[in-house]
Backbone:
């Protein structure tokens, strides 16, 4: 009945971190960060300069831009942007992009 006699097997740190991130609240937060970061990765440095804020909620990506002409230009190809971002992420994470 002495718990100190138990032997613990060492686990690789990668396995421990994967188990930790797999917990529901952490997984959701990591997914949100990954989706938000994908905007800058896919759109490139030039568009990222005009981006003030990127938020992800309920399968919608909210992007705040401070350039009206860029916002208008991007609004014509939102479906293609959704596809590019989802391809980059490797799944169907984004259903709609809302330009603010």
Residues:
């Amino acid at each position: 009945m002495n718990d100190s006699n138990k032997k613990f097997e060492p686990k690789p740190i990668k396995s421990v971190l994967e188990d930790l991130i797999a917990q529901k609240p952490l997984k959701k937060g990591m997914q949100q960060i990954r989706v938000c970061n994908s905007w800058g990765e896919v759109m490139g440095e030039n568009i990222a300069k005009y981006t003030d804020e990127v938020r992800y909620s309920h399968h919608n990506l909210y992007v705040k831009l401070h350039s009206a002409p860029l916002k208008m230009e991007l609004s014509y190809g939102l479906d293609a942007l959704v596809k590019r971002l989802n391809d980059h992420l490797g799944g169907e994470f984004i259903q709609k992009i809302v330009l603010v």
